[in-house]
Amino acid sequence: MNYDKDDDEADRIYQDVDEKMDKRRRARREAREKKEREEYERNNPKIQQQFADLKRALGSVTEEEWAALPEVGDMTGKAKRAREARLNNARSYAVPDSVISAAAQQGQLETSIPADSGDGTMTNFASIGAAQKSALQVRLDSAAANNSGTQTSVGGTSTSVDPRGYITALEKSQANGMAAPVEDINRARVLLESAVKTNVHNGPGYVALCRLEEVAGKIHTAKKVIQKGCEMCPRSVVVWEEAIRINRDNLHNAKVIAAAGIKQNPKAIKLWIAAIDLEQTVAARKKVTRQALDHNPQSVELWKILINDTEEIENVRMLFAKATETVKLSEELWISYARVSEPEHAQQILNAARKAIPTSWAIWVQACRLQEQLGKVELCDKIMERAVKALIKENAMPKREEWITHAEVCEEEGAIVTAGSIIRATVGWGLDEDDERRDTWLQDAKDSMARGRYGTARAILGYAVSVFSQSTTVWHALADLEKRHGTTEVLLETLERAVNACPNSESLWLLYAREMWQGGRPEDARKVIARSFQQLPGNENLYTRAVDFEVDANEFDQARRFLKIARESAATDRIFMKSAVLERQLGELDTALDLVNQGLQTWPGSWKLHAIKGQLYESMGKLKEAQEAFAVGTRANPKAPVLFVLLARLQERTGAIVKARSTLERGRQNNPKTPQLLVESVRLERRAGNMSAAQKLMALALQECPHSGLLWDEKIMHLESRTQRKPRALEAIKKVENDPQLFVVVARIFWSERRLDKAATWFTKGITLDPDYGDGWVWYYKFLEQHGTEEKRAEVVEKCVMAEPKHGEVWQSVAKDPKFARKGLDVILKEAAKRVE
Fold first, then answer.
1. Are 762 and 743 in contact (CB under 8 A)?
2. 164-168, 227-231, 250-254, 425-429, range with the lowest pLDDT
3. Positions of the TPR repeats (predicted)?
4. Which alpha helices (H) appear in 176-299, and where do they start and end?
5. Is the pTM of this model over 0.70?
6. Distance from CA of residue 558 to its chain's centroid?
7. Are 168 and 149 in contact (CB under 8 A)?
8. For 619-677, what is each residue's pLDDT tens digit?
9. Which residues pair with 159 in a beta bridge?
10. Which residues of 524-560 are buried (b: 16+ CB within 10 A; e: fewer)?
């Protein structure tokens, strides 16, 4: 039956209906299948489930009952085995004649050469047979691995060969530069000659035999074979093609053969193309091409060859006009015609092309690109909207994913506006309002960015924010794209639109203010903060960000004024902590202590305020008061591990090792399975020289927290010998997957072994896995100081500043040091690299 346009439309409609119904019924179908599966498992329990009650009953068996169980014996066929054993013991054997003969000749001189001599004078047929068998097995295996193109079956006296498959096999053999074994060629020659004699009108058989003779080096025989094939199969195009190919060493003969083949097959495009390739001059090529077009006016390939051989642009346009008039359904010719024409005439050409091929999306895209080239970008969206309506009417609308691919192609070729118009007109095609459109578009944008098509991703996210204007997630994704792959002006413009659309989003206001400040516009950043105060009065995060800005600008009085307002209008323990930290950084320790005490009156359970109070006393040199402050904090908030660690370290510094050990034990009781307390206990014993106690504590700690990268780091680098570090690291990585701290440990091990490439690879893995882990950046920079270039160190510093890490023991010890309070991240990175060993 003929498959016409109506059948295609019906299939498309049925497919859309099936997809829609399947999507609606999926949840109910999955629930029904799950219920049926549970019912089946309940009615047909496994053997393991059937014996579950008996296995549970075994738990009540006592040791005496187990010991009283009799030994299992095998009583089957006992009498028969005993009888066979007696017969074996009583059996006797006759002495071979060879033994008697050897005993008789013992001590005599040999006067003849033995038959099994290994000196090469005798032929060992057994070894030859074994070698032939082995070689045959290898060849069979090779044939089994490469028989995808050739199929040979032998049954009785008949033989069938797949000539095309054999041609493929020969081409592979020639491409690999391998000569086939002689016996293979002879065998194949017999088979192919049989196939040709059986069916003298089988064109591919002659081609295969010709290729075989060519591989065997018998070019003259190959030409004779293919000549006979041309005589016996004058209507076979592949035979004439092969004849032209193998006679290309003599152009005159090849042209004669091509003419004869074309005379027999005037509609064979491949033969015409082969004849055109035989010509040496452009004029001769054009002459043959025109003759070919006289016989095949509908061939797009021939029109393309003729146009490519024409140099004058006016003649090219005339040829395109004639080609599109002759072949009206070739969108390639229409689009190429439009590209080589003047803009005004190109628009007329594309209008005619749309009428000729109403189902072509490529013509609409080319029309959009034409308007972009003319500078009429405002018309691009209208053209794509018309394109969508026309294609839907013709039931020729591509899928949404295909449109995204077309947009990426346009972006790659420089048509950014066209790519955006395609996305805006088609990215919602096929998605219902009840679908998770936002997540779908976010994933589409992410995929486009992964392929390096940022303009397409920008268009997708731009359309997403127009639909979900209240979604902070979409705005953040768009802002992140502009920050990484856009300009500062566009980023600030995007954030202005974002805060206007989502005025109650704290994160967007903070991001807007930070980017404005980092863009070198502090006054505008202050205005943004002021606007955010109006929208979100009493928000502590906005106050703290405003304080950070003023501190960075060295406007300490203004920062104190903000904090005072915050303590009066939006008082929280964080605000008091921020105030105390600022005074501490400015050297006003007494003022900071007063602020901490004020905060503790309202929030006595704030562990951060207790920690700052103890640190302030430490800075003043009042260790007893500091110890008391930490102790009070542990009692007020026993769930804060940091306070126990600070108190234990202070007690250790004063020489009270026993008290420090007791403090950490109390902390572990209040906070079980806390790696920070466990590793501090191990370090306390290690610093005290009690390595055995440290080893025991580490074993217990890994039992409680086997997936802690912090504990494995301490064990590998401080409790293991150098030779055992790598096995322990391998064990740790198997138990703790994707931990950046362990990646850094492995890199340090390779570094110590002078395997620098491996070390750099693992350092890169660590910082890529978690850019927020500051110690990974510190160790990598330390490594590059010894084994890196200045450019590489500068690149790492730049990436670290962009990542803005906040965690890591070494990193926090420097970042929270008052001496580095207003220093940049690059300074903190370099200082932290000096402290690691």
1. yes
2. 164-168
3. 740-773
4. 182-198, 203-215, 219-232, 237-246, 251-264, 269-278, 282-295
5. no
6. 49
7. yes
8. 888 889 999 999 999 999 999 999 999 999 999 998 889 999 999 999 999 999 999 99
9. 154
10. ebbebbeebbeeeeebbebbbbbbbbbbeeebeebbb
Q: Which amino acid is at 150?
A: T
DSSP for 42-56 reads: HHS--HHHHTHHHHH
Do 318 and 331 contact (CB within 8 A), yes or no? no
Q: What is the tens place of the pLDDT at every residue in 459-517?
A: 999 999 998 888 899 999 999 999 888 888 999 999 999 999 998 888 898 888 888 88
CA distances for 419 relative to 1, 274, 404, 491, 782, angstroms = 41, 40, 8, 20, 45
Instruction: Give the pair of three-digit tokens for residue 285.
Output: 């090529």
Of 704, 751, 697, 749, nearest in space to 726 by CA: 749
The kind and range of the H/E element at 491 are helix 488-501
- Tokens in use for 555? 């406007």
Identify whether the C-beta of residue 419 lies closer than 8 Å to the C-beta of residue 456. Answer: yes
The residues with which 155 forms a beta bridge, in sequence order, are 158
In this predicted structure, what is the pLDDT of residue 473? 92
Residue closest to 575 by CA, chosen among 586, 564, 583, 584: 564
Q: Residue 158: enclosing H or E segment and its boundaries?
A: strand 158-161
Q: In the 8-state DSSP scheme, what is residue 826?
A: H
Is residue 153 within a helix (H) or strand (E), and if so which, with residue range? strand 152-155
How far apart (Å, rounded) are the C-alpha atoms in residues 3 and 673? 70
Backbone angles phi, psi at 824, to 5 degrees: -75, 165
Q: How far is CA 548 from the centre of its chain?
A: 39
- The residues, ordered by sequence, that sit 6+ positions from 694 with a Cβ below 8 Å of its Cβ are 682, 683, 685, 686, 719
